[in-house]
């Protein structure tokens, strides 16, 4: 029976074992189709400690580098980072934040609003301390096939202390190249 490809996209005339050896190989399969995960890279930190109380963004020491295989690829950046925040409760604002950067370009930032609620409850104490993990993600379109480094930074308002990463508390930055 002849192999027929009809207008509806179906193929008839094939039987199990009906194709000669070598007819279908890696080169004829649909690879790198949109949405396929092409590679995964992870950066981690278990002992870097960064303390910031300057009211400025501070590098956390958590980085990961990936070289996209195509300029049309997207990079899914997933941050999972441990922190300790210490607040002087005499103030009126307790705001801390993390952000994800590609090189020196800020891509995404989040304010950790939970600080305010915890500090307000503990307002009778001279200082409040809390530890937690933040998880955030960002889908980036770097439009390059060059080696690309992502990193995280932390921010705490002046007068309060933000300890980013800690011995025995693993923080990770995972990069996944997604075919575009």
Basic shape: elongated
The CATH architecture term is: Sandwich
Q: Distance between the terminal alpha carbons, to the nearest Å?
A: 39 Å
Q: Give me the strand/helix succession.
A: EEEEEEEEHEEEE
Instruction: Tell me the total number of β-strands.
Output: 12
Query: What Rg do the Cα atoms give?
Result: 24 Å
Helical content, roughly?
A: under 10%
CATH class: Mainly Beta
CATH fold naming: Jelly Rolls
Count of the separate structural domains: 1
Structural class: mainly beta
Q: Specify the biggest β-sheet.
A: 6 strands, antiparallel
Give average pLDDT, whole number: 76
Question: Spans of 5+ residues with little confidence (pLDDT < 50)?
Answer: 114-119
Strand content: over 45%
Count, helices: 1
Topology of this structure?
Layout: E1 4-5, E2 11-12, E3 37-45, E4 50-52, E5 58-66, E6 74-88, E7 96-102, E8 105-111, H1 114-121, E9 127-140, E10 148-156, E11 161-164, E12 171-178
Antiparallel strand pairs: 1-2, 3-12, 4-11, 5-10, 6-9, 6-11, 6-12, 7-8, 7-10
Summarize this structure briefly.
This protein has one helix at residues 114-121, and strands at 4-5, 11-12, 37-45, 50-52, 58-66, 74-88, 96-102, 105-111, 127-140, 148-156, 161-164, 171-178. With 180 residues, the protein is mainly beta. The chain has one domain: Jelly Rolls, CATH 2.60.120.
Care to describe what's here?
This protein is mainly β and 180 residues long. The protein has one domain (32-178): Jelly Rolls. The protein is 4% helix and 49% strand. The chain has one helix and twelve strands, in the order ββββββββαββββ. The protein has one helix at residues 114-121, and strands at 4-5, 11-12, 37-45, 50-52, 58-66, 74-88, 96-102, 105-111, 127-140, 148-156, 161-164, 171-178. Strands 3, 4, 6, 9, 11 and 12 form a six-stranded antiparallel sheet that branches. A four-stranded antiparallel sheet has the order 5-10-7-8, with no helix packed on it. The chain has a two-stranded antiparallel sheet with strand order 1-2. Strand 1 and strand 2 form a beta hairpin. It is elongated and about 80 Å long.
């Amino acid at each position: 029976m002849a192999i027929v490809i009809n207008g509806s996209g179906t193929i008839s005339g094939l039987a199990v074992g009906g194709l000669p050896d070598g007819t279908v190989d890696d080169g004829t399969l649909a690879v790198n189709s949109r949405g396929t995960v092409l590679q995964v890279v992870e950066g981690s930190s278990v002992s870097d400690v960064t303390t910031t109380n300057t009211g400025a963004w501070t590098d956390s020491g958590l980085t990961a580098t990936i070289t996209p295989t195509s300029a049309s690829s997207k990079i899914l950046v997933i941050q999972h980072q441990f922190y300790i925040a210490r607040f002087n409760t005499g103030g009126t604002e307790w705001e801390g934040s993390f952000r994800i950067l590609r090189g020196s370009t800020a891509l995404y930032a989040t304010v950790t609003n939970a600080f305010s609620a915890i500090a307000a409850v503990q307002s009778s104490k001279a200082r409040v301390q809390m530890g937690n993990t933040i998880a955030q993600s960002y889908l980036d379109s770097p439009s390059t096939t060059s080696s690309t480094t992502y990193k995280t930074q932390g921010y705490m308002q002046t007068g309060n202390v933000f300890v980013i990463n800690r011995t025995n508390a693993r923080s990770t930055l995972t990069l996944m190249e997604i075919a575009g």
